[in-house]
Amino acid sequence: xxILDGKKVSNEIKQExxxxxxxxxxxxxxxxxxxxxxxxxxxASLTYVGSKVRSCEKVGFESTLVKMPSTTSELELxxxxxxLNKNEDIDGFIVQLPLPPQIDTQKVLLAVDPDKDVDxxxxxxxxxxxxxxxxxxxxxxxxILELLERYNVDTKGKHTVVIGRSHIVGRPMSILMGRxxxxxxxxxxxxxxxxxxxxxxxxxxxxxxxxLGVPKFLKAEMIKDDAVIIDVGITRVADDSYEKGYYITxxxxxxxxxxxxxxxxxxxxxxxxxxxxxLLKNTLLARDRHRNRK
Length: 294
Ligand SMILES: NC(=O)C1=CN([C@@H]2O[C@H](COP(=O)(O)OP(=O)(O)OC[C@H]3O[C@@H](n4cnc5c(N)ncnc54)[C@H](OP(=O)(O)O)[C@@H]3O)[C@@H](O)[C@H]2O)C=CC1
Ligand SMILES: Nc1nc(=O)c2c([nH]1)NC[C@@H]1CN(c3ccc(C(=O)N[C@@H](CCC(=O)O)C(=O)O)cc3)C=[N+]21
Description:
One of its GO terms (biological process) is purine nucleotide biosynthetic process. By secondary structure, the chain is α/β, with parallel strands linked by helices. The chain has helices spanning about 5-25, 45-60, 75-85, 105-110, 125-130, 140-150, 170-175, 200, 255-260, 270-294; strands at about 1-5, 35-40, 60-70, 90-95, 160-165, 185-190, 205-210, 230, 235-240, 245-250, 265. It has two domains: about 25-115, Rossmann fold (3-Layer(aba) Sandwich), CATH 3.40.50.10860; about 140-270, NAD(P)-binding Rossmann-like Domain (Rossmann fold), CATH 3.40.50.720. The strands form three sheets. Strands 1-11-8-7-5-6 form a six-stranded parallel β-sheet, with helices on both faces. Strands 3-2-4 form a three-stranded parallel β-sheet, with helices on one face. Strand 9 (about 235-240) and strand 10 (about 245-250) form a beta hairpin. Helix 2 crosses helix 10 and helix 6 crosses helix 10. The protein is globular.
């Protein structure tokens, strides 16, 4: 069994990016600038956005965090997005999801300038991805592809079972694993809460990508010997014996599943850190696009 070490690989990627940014500074060029809009103060969202800002500092990017109260109206958020769209200094930005119920997420995703959409959630970019055109690939699926690539995991002709069909992870992942080329050329089954015989389907998988958010959903008995296991799930479990008052866990019963798998991602330290590294990569790409346009 080999651990797909997202922490390590993400640090390598950040190192590579830091070198490129240092060169930009030396030449007196503008460095990439990433912004994030956070509406409300959900604990997990704050953690994620906070580590994004720290990662920006680490690689030498500029970053801006826009915090808005949970009572923000849709119009106020759309106005803020328009401001960031117009701000020439900002290369890319994300609107942290989920949004409060008074805000229509679809309207928000449509409002982001596709050239600054480093999440890759705008329909224009999502469509380009599905059509194999060059674009921003959503950071979590992009990070998983990068891990598979760096560890030389064979995906060709393999049966990949994706669990969960969210627009930010499961759905794009299912499209990307089925694309031509590598990592891809997989035969993909996309499963969700209405899937019948899900256990039987998972037992046939060479690669399982679990993105449902149910702790210990995936158990050793469910998988094939030597399956590749990618655990996207992140759930906070309240526990006072931990310093922060909680610990985080994935969808996979790691202790037992890891004994049977050929490759497996841990939580924490697997897909999460890769997501942040790929967001930085997309911001670098955005900055290059803007320079080429001018
Ligand atoms: N590591 C990282 O970088 C990231 C981690 N995450 C984590 O990944 C998890 C999933 O988040 P997200 O992708 O936003 O998905 P959502 O929470 O939006 O959706 C969950 C998906 O899982 C499906 N599902 C729920 N229960 C079951 C079940 N018992 N059997 C089969 N399918 C089920 C749902 O089906 P249905 O569609 O029918 O409701 C839905 O498609 C969360 O824990 C989240 O925190 C998310 C993003 C990035
Ligand atoms: N517009 C938007 N884009 C996103 O990409 C997006 C989003 N909204 N909403 C929420 C999800 C979740 N997500 C995570 C990213 C990194 C970690 C991460 O770094 N996790 C660490 C641990 C973090 C901890 O300790 O809580 C790890 O797994 O090792 C987790 C989760 C991005 N998302």
